# Entry
Amino acid sequence: MASKVSDRFGIPALLVFLALGMLAGSEGLGGIYFDDPSLAQAIGVVALSLILFSGGLSTQWQSVRPIFTWGFILATLGVCVTALVVGLFSVMVFDFTIMEGLLLGAIVSSTDAAAVFSILRSKGISLRGQLKPLLEFESGSNDPMAVFLTIGMIQVLTQPESSLWDMVRLFALQMSIGLAAGYVMARVTLYLVNRLKLGYEGLYPVLTLSLALLTYGLSDKLGGNGFLAVYITGIIAGNSKFIHKRSLLQFHDGLAWLMQITMFLTLGLLVFPSHLLPVMGLSLLIAVCLILVARPAGVFLSLLPSPFSFREKAFISWVGLRGAVPIILATFPFLAGILQADLLFNVVFFVVLTSVLLQGTTIQYLARWLRVDAPLHQERVYPIEFNPDSGFKSELNELIIPAGSQVVGKKLFELKLPPECLIVLIVRGNEYVLPSGQTFLNDGDALLVLADRDVFGKVVAEVNTPRPA
# Structure
């Protein structure tokens, strides 16, 4: 039902669950009293860890590599610029000190690309060029940066003797330990998944779920950034071979959605709508500054020497939706005893609502207006699944026969294919064809090829060779 509402009105489905949480709260129809920021934060930390792990698993390094530098700059410098602009503006709007203003800026500095792509997907729209991998990579990697800035600002507020050098040292420590823990736990995860011969396939999701949470806990215990660690673990594991990969990716994707729903329901319960009304006007000014000034400033400054066009930078600026992460970070000041914690939480909550409602409902129109949209490519779903064990080198890959290929019109037995490969299935239009040596090949056919990487490269070369003139 939430998905149908999202498709109809063009807003993220998770906003519906946020509204349900508010309706179920003490000031809503449900009358459930929930005022426990500590529990809400604990739920949020677990949920965000699993969401980032899933995001890392689904990140294809091959598509990220060309934009890695710009994504990294956007997730670091861009986040800092956004936090700085919002922080300075909030000092003028509210009765905040400089550090309290910067804390607010840090809290709202991260973005939620998942919300963006759920909206575009519901409208049958994709994005041109490198926009999609850039936005996805930025979204996953700027959460750890926002967490660091938030914790750093809280440390400065609670420990006034802290210096800039302390912040730099904290940053270096958190990021280096987070990276190291993420790499080590990725190797541990791959080793255990591939080497442990669990008697029941359903235990593998339990294993990877436990390892993801262990990664966060280990990194955090050592003084590192746990969110960065789980994201790095997910990226390394997702771009490696392991058994039951497809089913595990599907499990963690579904789990990530469940975690997002849980977060939004919990945060909806935590907020008191009556507390939002007194800060609505000033919070709207903060939201406008974030959307129209701070985010564009961070994007254009970070991508100044990049090959992205003005239209692409403008679109990147507009799609910086704020999701559940800022609301989770807004619970941190409560536990640290910050005096303005209640005001900060209510302002952040209203800013997120404004961002989702304003930006979320206009993304598809802006993509078309700026001409950065592209038709959505639907991935084929095959009726078979291939789960090799750790010692099996062959992979199942899709290969589409291009128009003008030398193999068009030939029978399968006429192709000069290596004996180590096997054409498992042919997809022709909406039909599945079981291949035999007498099967003719047409342009546009999708071949499902079982072969190792080197052999598959030879098959690709054979199929992509044009027909002699």
Summary: DSSP finds 20 helices and six strands in the chain. The chain has a mean pLDDT of 85. The first helix runs from residue 2 to 9. Residues 380 and 423 are 17 Å apart (CA to CA).
